[in-house]
Amino acid sequence: MNSLFSNLPTTIFEVMSVLARETGAINLGQGFPDGPGPEDIRRKAAEAVLDGYNQYPPMMGLAELRTAVATHYAHWHDVTLDAEREVMITSGATEAIAGAILALVEPGDEVVLFQPLYDAYLPLVKLAGGIPKLVRLEPPHWRFDEEMLARAFSDKTRVVVFNNPLNPTATVFPREDLELLARYCKKFDAVAVCDEVWEHVTFDGRQHIPLIALPGMRERTVKIGSAGKIFSLTGWKVGFVCAAPHLMKALSKAHQFLTFTTPPNLQTAVAYGLGKEDAFFEEMRADLQRSRDRLADGLRSIGLPPLESQGTYFLNVDLAPLGLNVKDEDFCKTLVHERGVALIPVSAFYAENPVTSVVRVCFSKKDTVLDAAIEKLSGLVR
């Protein structure tokens, strides 16, 4: 067996979800919505599987979806893409990330990663033979600065993996941070693999700024999006990859030998969804923001004030300022057994030197679920 995978422990996400099922706890750990997703988009997928083509679609994706992706990003981010040469469809964003890392990283290349990080990044970098160089972000603001980048970048830096908005910290990075990162990518001739699956899930009027749109980054950025996050259909696993032709040449080969293609009926439905009116996306954000505020208000009312949530399905609570002398993982395991609520310790998102005082809470749930969780947690902090 490959020791890289055989020696990996069971993820904390699986641990907490199993505990939630075994104990009947309310699961605010794993990040998925309670609802079924938009009915019209689901109906398009059903119609396409019954009445449409169900054999192998093109390896790069259906032309109608690639065109829809290019049109969507031109409208929302003012990024002009050639649908034929610069857009590819994958079986989810994780496949897109895997393909990008395998296509761009060779043994000995250094790869800059920002922690806390999505748990797939590190094993994939190591599988490709890359050497991870970690930038450690801390609460409450989760920002990076020039000194931190200077320590991570070197002449061996080949790739930067950058998640914005950032799960689990719920941070939407401002333009000045992006410009700083772009400057370092250009200085060290690095390619940025941008995991932007939460690009539409931003709050309080914030607008997502894709790194590919910044000066000098068009030719050195791989932009990755996710229909699952945009439409709250996390099980569909339809991802988008956008990159300049010289990068796409290698990216497409990696995709060809990973999944090759993606169900055509889902591609048809996502193409329809991407063309919906602006009001659909704005209402989606407003609904999630309302859920965020409901949970945040509830947590404050019981003495667990959350950190600012600027985007994603999550908000975080830092236990340290509350005087709770307990590590986040122990806190979460105690809660699921004694209070019947499952959360996620943010230390699980660190590869080394973790922050051990922050827990992540998912708010993309029904009001009744959020209210029940607050009731179960009341009286916890005295």
From TrEMBL:
This is Aminotransferase. SUPFAM superfamilies: PLP-dependent transferases. It comes from the Bacteria. The keyword Protein biosynthesis does not apply. Gene3D superfamilies: Aspartate Aminotransferase, domain 1, Type I PLP-dependent aspartate aminotransferase-like (Major domain). Keywords: Aminotransferase, Pyridoxal phosphate, Transferase. The keyword Cell membrane does not apply. Residues 25-377 form the Aminotransferase class I/classII large domain. One of its GO terms (cellular component) is cytoplasm. CDD domains: AAT_like (cd00609). Its cofactor is pyridoxal 5'-phosphate.
